[in-house]
Amino acid sequence: MSFRLRPTFRDALAGASRPLAGMWVCSGSPLVAEICADAGLDWLLIDMEHSANGLESVLAQLQAVAAADAIPVVRVPSGDAVVLKQVLDLGAQNILVPMVDSAAQAEDLVRAVRYPPRGVRGVGSALARSARWNRVDDYLADADRHVSLFVQVETAAGVRNAAAIAAVEGVDGVFVGPSDLAASMGLLGRQTHPDVVAAVLRAFEAVRSTGTPVGVNAFDPGAAQGYLDAGASFVLVGADVTLLARGSESLAERWTTPGDAGRSS
Fold first, then answer.
1. pTM of the predicted model, to two decimals?
2. Which bin fits 261, alpha (ψ -120 to 50), beta or left (φ > 0)?
3. Mean pLDDT, the chain, as a whole number?
């Protein structure tokens, strides 16, 4: 029996005629992930850095969205080689690593997601969903084709080194994080501050100069459109948990405010 894996997020970006729009999936719920995957967006980011997601919940979410067109990307909590190995073995084909500040870090990450002799990824494909338990023909020899690696630039140091990071062979894209970037610049919580926006755009220019796709996180529609106009190839424009938070607040405002129609007899 032979199993064919899906194209990677790298492949999707290479073949896209427009920027790809996606959303965060932070709830840890496979059901919510499935709902989001079928919404019509291009990609989902399943987050392990700032969300209550572990290996078991990530696996369940990857299984839940497998039939959808939206491409799942998993953000790992760190660039630890063991964590990367485990998440890859779950069948995650697209990885985003946070807080990458230098080309040397990026080079280590490339090695971590590749098998020897090109890297140091541990070999367990016969036991793992990544190779569908050895049902993917020649997985060990061809694994690089089935895995895409994206790195996150989200500090002032990362912006300074963005071109060198993006130029590392095996880095398939750079994702800029304005929130942590703002914090590193002494502007915590002010990701739309002009200085932060200017830093994001400097990172864009540096990454694009290497021919590497660049993306950004931007929940504000105006900011997102501005970054798309500046050349972003992929963008995150919302999150499951924020949609639920704002939606439930809207219900509460509508139906629990004294004197509104929802409380009248």
1. 0.94
2. alpha
3. 96
Question: What is the Cα 56 distance to its own chain's centre?
Answer: 18
- Cβ atoms of residues 202 and 159 within 8 Å: yes
CATH value of 19-251 in 3.40.50.2300, 3.20.20.60, 3.40.50.300, 2.60.120.10: 3.20.20.60
- Taking only the tens place, the pLDDT of each residue in 177-215 is 999 999 999 999 999 999 999 999 999 999 999 999 999
Residue with tokens 């071109």: 163
Q: Which amino acid is at 49?
A: E
Would you call 218 helix, strand, or coil by DSSP? coil
> What is the separation of C-alpha 263 from the centre of its chain, rounded to a whole number of angstroms?
42
Categorize the per-residue pLDDT at 265 as very low, low, confident or very high, splitting at 50, 70 and 90.
Answer: very low
| Length of the chain measured in residues | 265
Angle at 243 between CA 32 and CA 252, to 5 degrees: 115
As annotated, the active-site residues are 50
